[in-house]
Amino acid sequence: MANPLRQGMRLSKRIEPCSLVIFGATGDLTQRKLAPALFNLEQQGLLPNGLEIVGFARRDKNDDAFRAEMTDALRHNIRSGGEAALQRFSRRLHYLRGDFNEADAFRRLSDLLFKLAESGRRPAHHLFYLATPPSQYETIAMNLGQTGLAHSASGWTRLIVEKPFGRDLASARSLNARLTAVFQEDQLFRIDHYLG
User: Fold this and answer.
1) Which of these, 27, 17, 28, lies nearest to 53 by C-alpha position?
2) Any idea what the CATH number is for the domain that residue 159 is in?
3) Is the pTM of this model over 0.90?
4) Domain count within the chain
5) Which candidate among 28, 130, 131, 187 keeps its CA 20 to 30 Å from the CA of 158?
């Protein structure tokens, strides 16, 4: 069904391929919300060629186990003829085991993102999605900054902060100060899935 709010609007801007890194990829938010939303876009043909999805979490698994876990969770969202879309989506998935406090894990992430950009012969565009408890936001942002992933010389970088942003005004301002010490304001996207 066409979106009636788009009548009279120009065609959508072509989405550039990027590496989408989901921190907390084995958690409930990813399983119930993010993966189904991304898969829905895949089924509609709206994900760009070259988009790679990297799950980053502490659980011990590899790419194949992560792909199997995600495809099993998504099978109930398949539309008629959607098995091909599920296979395409599965090929986009990668997994990196690491602790959010572990600098070496972020170095391995940097290496993986470089390899994905090189294999796709595309600029190093990175979209980092924090599907983690808010207590991990600063640690992840700092590690991204220390490994040079907060800024890309050959592409853009964005950070999506999910869930309520702070407990109150003071904690929101404090978190904002810590994030903007690493990322520029135009790189930050703050969303609350209860409002979105």
Assistant:
1) 17
2) 3.40.50.720
3) no
4) 1
5) 28
